[in-house]
Write a structure and sequence with these properties.
By secondary structure, this protein is an alpha/beta fold. Helices cover about 40% and strands about 20% of the residues. The chain contains twelve helices and nine strands. The protein has helices at about 10-25, 30-40, 45-50, 60-75, 80, 105-115, 135-145, 155-170, 210-215, 215-220, 235-245, 265-275, and strands at about 85, 90-95, 125-130, 150-155, 175-180, 195-200, 250-255, 280-285, 290-295. β3, α7 and β4 form a beta-alpha-beta unit.
């Protein structure tokens, strides 16, 4: 067990000790992670932790905290310990075996929401979220767009179960149809050709070289199927770009999250298919990385 076992007696002491342990173990953002871990463990908001810094911890709270700390210093991702991740200002359930949501995906969602809000149509909008994972994209769109139906697909049963729980949690499950299968596979017999206003995806895009370089925290815990995009990282983009025109309406869009230095290659793949207009949009994330590629069907 930990060398710091039961050194902390109060909430404030626990926070200070966890910060120190995490920092010494080389955990990035150790202060923030300590706050989050303590917050979820004690079922307090992060501000309540500071307001209750003198509260004495119960023995069971100390024992549970110690177990969580041990898991984190063994490089289990924080999100799998707390089973939570914030995204678009909402709290999402995260289960082991499902990809952990990343903040940069908010760029993709924000751009899609902007486009859908500007759409003029008399009927409900219909879009697809390919590889839904925890359902962050589908649920966020459902929360921000009133009249919409979203087809959320994933090959993983546990991902779909997690996504459904998140849709129920955020009271939007009636807007989302969950389908199990690889990318467009579940569309057959369910979705009419040229009926979708948009196809959105944050597909696996890590190539074989970068996959070997991933830190153990990611490589040993998150599902490979949700990370690895083939030898060059582009396998899923090729499939999505090739198949999307069959299901998109005229002027319907594809919106794709891409990895570092992939935007221009993905743009070239879209141009080569010759089913999309050449006014392809590339949007940067908060760090200036080209993160989202959007194209419109001819």
């Amino acid at each position: 067990m930990l060398e710091n076992k039961y050194r902390f007696q109060t909430v404030g002491q626990a926070l200070k000790n966890i910060r120190k342990i995490f920092k010494n173990k080389g955990i990035i953002n150790s202060e923030r992670e300590a706050e989050i871990l303590l917050s979820y463990s004690l079922e307090m908001s992060r501000s309540e932790i500071y307001l209750n810094s003198d509260r004495v911890l119960k023995d069971i709270e100390k024992t549970q905290l110690e177990k969580k700390i041990q898991k984190r210093i063994e490089k289990i991702p924080l999100q799998y310990i707390t089973k939570h991740q914030e995204f678009m200002g909402m709290d999402f359930l995260v289960e082991k075996g499902v990809l952990i949501p990343r903040p940069e995906t908010e760029i993709l969602v924000e751009e899609v929401i902007k486009k859908l809000k500007n759409y003029k149509c008399s009927n409900n909008l219909e879009v697809a979220d390919l590889g839904t994972g925890t359902g962050i994209i589908a649920v966020s769109i459902a929360k921000f767009i009133e009249d919409i139906i979203i087809y959320a697909t994933d090959i993983s049963k546990i991902s779909l179960q997690t996504a459904l729980k998140n849709a129920q949690k955020h009271a939007c499950k009636d807007k989302i149809i969950f389908l199990q299968g690889d990318l467009f596979e579940p569309f057959i017999g369910r979705i009419e050709k040229n009926s979708l206003d948009g196809i959105i995806s944050n597909p696996p895009y890590i190539d074989s070289y970068d996959f070997k370089l991933l830190p153990p925290e990611i490589k040993d815990n998150e599902p490979k199927i949700a990370l690895f995009g083939g030898i060059d990282g582009l396998d899923y983009y090729r499939k999505i770009i090739r198949k999307s025109p069959q299901y998109l309406k005229k002027n319907g869009f594809i919106a794709l999250e891409v990895g570092l230095n992939q935007s221009k290659i993905v743009k070239e793949l879209i141009i080569r298919e010759n089913n999309f207009y050449q006014n392809i949009e590339i949007i940067k994330d908060y760090l200036g990385i080209e993160r989202v590629v959007i194209a419109y069907r001819k």
